[in-house]
Amino acid sequence: MGGGKSCCFYVVAAVLVVAAVVAEGDGFITWDDVSIPSAAETASGGGVGLGKAAARGGGLTTIVVSQDGTGHSRTVQGAVDLVPAGNRRRVKILVRPGIYREKVRVPITKPFVSLIGMGTARTVITWNSRASDLDASGHQVGTLNSASVAIEADYFCASHITFENSAPPAPPGAVGQQAVALRLAGDKTMLYRCRVLGTQDTLFDNMGRHYYYNCDIQGSIDFIFGNARSLFQGCTLHAVATTYGAIAASQRSSPADDSGFSFVGCKLTGSGMLYLGRAWGRYARVVYSYCDLSGIVVPQGWSDWGDQSRTKTVLFGEYSCKGPGASTRQRVPWSRTLTYEEAQPFLGKSFINGEEWLKL
């Protein structure tokens, strides 16, 4: 990829400011928030029309999506639209089996939403936008708006569902071929047993604190990127690169930015030759601990994004990893083999202040 990502990604200057809300209860994310409701909870009761009225009035806490018309909505976006703005309690959107070919956006005004699928092989949300695609006004959509699913709200959860961008694979160095499957821009977000599938720029880990547990993430070039502070625990990172590629591109641009990616107990599989991380931001921060790294890791391990000055400011670290790709003998001299004391802040949920918002 040539140049920096700043030409492709931007944060909208005029951000909608919404008053902070506290969910009913203690405001923590629990296992119940990512679980499939019982049959009684998911029944549409008095019919689809009644269900929609209840949702608009803020009375429906479980919304069913079914393509056959037996739920409250035939589309995922239609279900999100039923969640009231300023929502203050957990609303579960149960997405029945099917391939949902649509773009989905959960706006900042709708926190406490759960998307619950029926299994990653059975419930799939997919679209095929690329950064160079044109919108209705003839302008390129850009990487930000190429996302098949965009989550801008806090306290979002997802489980047992696949997020996919099915655009054709992008060759290394291609311009405008970024194709995001999932963009997360809200704070205090959890994904459990989800799949995120794409090639270039698959997961836009945009901003906020995020917890990915037992998820599968697939891509080729910078397929996890952004300025979020995220913990990836027990995840499978699957490369589909045909030549070279990279897993993580941290956008951290200042030592004051409390962002970065921590991979704990993850497994790297797939094809190509992969950098563990690239220094998109001058203070990029990426750490791998207890990970199983296959032989597709480039021996040097890390890339400075073509800017040697970044080697003095990045934190690229490895701790107690295994597998043929874990050898550090040929690593770039500015990466670090961490001691336990150095790795410890990255090993648990405290990295994302999980004690404040996770009860798992």
From TrEMBL:
Active-site positions on this chain: D222
Classification via InterPro entries: Pectin_lyas_fold, Pectin_lyase_fold/virulence, Pectinesterase_Asp_AS, Pectinesterase_cat
Biological process terms in GO annotation: cell wall modification; pectin catabolic process
EC class: hydrolase
Compartments where found: Secreted, Cell wall
Catalytic activity: [(1->4)-alpha-D-galacturonosyl methyl ester](n) + n H2O = [(1->4)-alpha-D-galacturonosyl](n) + n methanol + n H(+)
Main location: secreted
Assigned keywords, A-Z: Aspartyl esterase, Cell wall, Hydrolase, Secreted, Signal
Pathway where it operates: Glycan metabolism; pectin degradation; 2-dehydro-3-deoxy-D-gluconate from pectin: step 1/5
EC number of this enzyme: 3.1.1.11
Pectinesterase catalytic domain location: 63-354
A Pfam family of this chain: Pectinesterase
Signal sequence segment: 1-23
Matching PROSITE patterns: PECTINESTERASE_2 (PS00503)
GO molecular function, one term: pectinesterase activity
Keyword Transport carried by entry: no
Family: Belongs to the pectinesterase family.
The protein's name: Pectinesterase
Organism this protein belongs to: Eleusine coracana subsp. coracana
